[in-house]
Amino acid sequence: MARKVIIDCDPGIDDAVALCLALYEPRFEVLAITATGGNVSPQQASRNAHVILEQIDPPRYPRLGEASLHHLPRTDAKQFHGHDGLGNSGFRVSDLHHLHPSEKLICDTVRAAPDEVTIITLGPLTNVAAAFQRDPELASLVDRIIISGGTVTASGNVNPAAEFNMFNDPESARAVFRSRTTKTLVPLDVTQQLTLTLDFLNHLPKRGTSVGEFLGKIIPFFFRAYRQKGQESIHLHDVVTLFAALHPELFQTTEMAGDVETSGDLTTGATVFDRRLTPVWRPNMEVATEIDVSAVTDCLIRGLAEVG
Ligand code: BDR
Ligand code: CA
Questions:
Q1: How far is the CA of 279 from the centre of ligand 2 (A)?
Q2: CA angle 26, 47, 170 (to 5 degrees)
């Protein structure tokens, strides 16, 4: 039976690739895509989730949740993803009508299938924290949350201490970390091990297919953006997180006790783990610590070929 999932995201080019793979993946039943501000503004994130669905036209349409305008991200990542978050490709989209707020859609979707839904978060944890606040029992009704973000020993990517998704809403991240849900964290230490060089462009689905057309427009921008930062290869962080859900056997994990710093001139958004010889904090999540990079790369290439 296909695994029921909600994908909470801030698209974003790597989010978009993850969505393409997830929406064509027969082992997943994507019940909802819930947008949140992060890489781009909340409005743009909602729009982009809609654009992606229209562009790739998946076999089954999930419900779409609108990002909250109440929580504005502390910073964006437009220098990597473009002003529109999708490589400045100028996608048009039909008007958005009657979308539910993302947090409400999360609540309704989990309530409709208690203990069966996995939430994969690819952006700041704003929506999940808001859903848990709205419905305090919800945390114990989610099967698992798989979270893209944080760092264990790697340095941050927004600043020396913090990873982008955590930095953007550390209060929400802390609330989710401290919640009673079963959690898997896929931190930068692991996601940045997958590096893709220009040759990756040859593995995208063929132009002429909906996903091939879409990815063919956005991925070259990502390479250019990384090159401007001095790097010839790109990272698809959120795709690695998706594979942690789809192919857990390709990852090693350790039970750890983690929290998020919510204040501090230099450390807001830093994830902190009790790695003392004799830890005092109680383990509250599984953390991915190792990845079989070549197997994950093969899965990515195979996945894209199947989507095509
Ligand atoms: C995270 O930051 C965002 O820019 C990416 O989409 C990913 O979710 C990696 O730190
Ligand atoms: Ca993201």
A1: 31
A2: 85
Residues recorded for the chain = 308
Both tokens assigned to 242: 């998706």
Q: Give the position, in ligand 1's atom list, of the atom nearest the Cα of 158.
A: 10
Structure-token match 């290869």, residue found: 233
Q: Report the first-to-last Cα separation within the chain, whole angstroms.
A: 23
pTM above 0.90, yes or no: yes
CB distance 8 to ligand 1 below 6 Å: no
* C-beta of residue 247 within 8 angstroms of C-beta of residue 140: no
Amino acid at 48: N
What residues are labeled active site? 10, 237
The pLDDT tens digits for 22-68 are 999 999 999 999 999 999 999 999 999 999 999 999 999 999 999 99
Instruction: Spell out the CATH class of 3-307.
Output: alpha beta
What are the tens digits of pLDDT across the range 115-159? 999 999 999 999 999 999 999 999 999 999 999 999 999 999 999
Structure tokens at 235: 């990272």
Q: 288 with 151: CB under 8 angstroms? A: no
